[in-house]
Amino acid sequence: MTVAVCAAVILAMIAASFIANRRLPPADRLPMQWGVSGRPTWSAPRLAALSFMPALAVVTIAVIYVASGGALPGGAVVIVAFLAAHLLHLWMIGRQLGQA
């Protein structure tokens, strides 16, 4: 059950990235991190910026799955945290580019 939830959430993250890619204004690079002033401190190529969190979620869940012997203790909590962080990141990118 938890594996199915994790897979569904990862697919939702990927879908959110595809939607964001179509809706965000054209830009070769997208912000990845913001400083305390609210200004981006570094950016990444568009594809990397939109795929980083889903890829990190897949790797993290896979490591937890393998390390726990085929179980996902707390996997649902971890994956929902990744989803929340990804959606926040996409929202912040849109806000920065003037497309909230």
Question: Overview of this structure, please?
Answer:
This is DUF1648 domain-containing protein. Keywords: Membrane, Transmembrane, Transmembrane helix. It comes from Pseudoroseicyclus tamaricis. The chain crosses the membrane at residues 46-67, 74-94. This protein is an alpha+beta fold and 100 residues long. The chain has one domain (2-21, 45-96). Helices cover 66% and strands 12% of the residues. It has a two-stranded antiparallel sheet. Strand 1 (29-34) and strand 2 form a beta hairpin. The protein is elongated and about 45 Å long. The termini are far apart.
Give descriptors for this structure.
alpha+beta; elongated; two-stranded antiparallel ribbon; 100 residues
Helix content: 55-70%
- What fraction strand? 5-15%
Taking all Cα atoms into account, the compactness measure Rg is 15 Å
Number of domains: 1
Task: Provide the residue-averaged pLDDT.
Answer: 92
Q: What spatial order of strands do you see in the largest sheet?
A: 1-2
Helix/strand structural class: alpha+beta
Number of strands: 2
Count of helical regions: 3
Termini separation comes to 34 Å
Query: Which consecutive residue ranges, at least 5 long each, have pLDDT under 50?
Result: none
The ordered string of helix (H) and strand (E) elements is HEEHH
- What shape does the CA trace take? elongated
- What is the makeup of the main sheet? 2 strands, antiparallel
Keywords: Membrane, Transmembrane, Transmembrane helix
Transmembrane segments: 46-67, 74-94
Protein name: DUF1648 domain-containing protein
